[in-house]
Amino acid sequence: MQLERILQKHGFGSRRECRGLVRRGRVAINGTLCEDPFVELAIDGLVFTVDGVDWPYAEFACLMLHKPLHYECSRKPKHHPGVLELLPVALRERDVQPIGRLDEDTSGLLLITNDGQLNHQLSSAKRKVPKIYLATTKHPVEQELIDQLLAGVLLTDEPEPIAAAAAEKVGEHLLRLTLTSGKYHQVKRMVAAAGNRVEALHREAVGELQLPADLKPGEWRWLSADDLQKLDYSR
Ligand code: URA
Q1: Both 157 and 114 in a single domain?
Q2: Which CATH number does the domain housing residue 26 bear?
Q3: Which end of the chain is more exposed for a tag (fewer CB within 10 A), N or C?
Q4: pLDDT at 199 over 90
Q5: Which residue has its alpha carbon closest to ligand 1 atom 3?
Q6: CB of 162 shorter than 6 A to ligand 1
Q7: What CATH number has the domain bearing residue 83?
Q8: 8 in ligand 1 pocket by Cβ < 6 Å?
Q9: Distances (CA, A) of 18 to 24, 52, 96, 127, 217
Q10: Pick from 98, 142, 145, 105: which is nearest to 123 by CA?
Q11: What pLDDT, in 10s, does the model give residues 159-194?
């Protein structure tokens, strides 16, 4: 594929703008400066560099973000900055979107992609993708709270009680909860319905994919082939 086309596909502007980037000496291929925008490159394993930043060739952009507190996941954030502002412009230009949402006051693992199929698979209610949360509670975590969450609690506007797939006490005021559905404010509403209150919420994992300990709030990284394997809910 032509370099100019590759850059355009990766969010670096129009074909003309991409040509300009290359001609101005801002692009390297596998570490070597390349000033020919029309050079044909094999895309398999290709890494190109723009202004010193490496970009792996990626048909779709699939990444994880450690969502910090006080960022909104909505397309048009109202009261706080949007999570997409934490990404480089070239990624935002590729029309990436969060897979599901975390509340403004929830931190943790947020997946972001422009791959509609992946987004659909991971958000579809049918697939029952487990999401693991750590909730800090106002009152101590009693066995009764765990029992109620596992048995199912009735939420306003829901026809049936909803049960957690797993719930365990991990500290006096700390609860680890696994949910396989993703309703609005679900953890907070379930815990409230069981007589306690969530004071802080953090998502630790989606399916088998854990938020890496070395990914700081506000940082993002590409999903590796191994990560994507862990998120394969296609069957
Ligand atoms: N449940 C909530 O209440 N909030 C979140 O952000 C995610 C799950």
Answers
A1: no
A2: 3.10.290.10
A3: C
A4: yes
A5: 185
A6: no
A7: 3.30.70.580
A8: no
A9: 10, 16, 20, 40, 32
A10: 98
A11: 999 999 999 999 999 999 999 998 999 999 999 999
pLDDT at 235 over 80: no
Q: Considering only CA atoms, give the Rg of the chain.
A: 21
Q: Establish if 86 belongs to a structural domain.
A: yes
So which residues are the catalytic ones? 103
pLDDT, tens digit, 9 for 90 and up, residues 92-107: 999 999 999 999 999 9
Q: What's the pLDDT score for residue 189? A: 97
164 belongs to a structural domain: yes
In this structure, the answer to whether residues 190 and 134 fall within a common structural domain is: yes
Residue 179, token pair as written in the block: 């949910």
> Does 223 fall in a domain?
yes
Helix-strand-coil split of the chain, %, nearest 5: 25, 30, 45
- 110 pocket-lining for ligand 1 (C-beta < 6 Å): no
Per DSSP, which regions of 69-224 are E strands? 97-98, 106-113, 131-137, 166-171, 174-179, 198-206, 209-210, 220-222
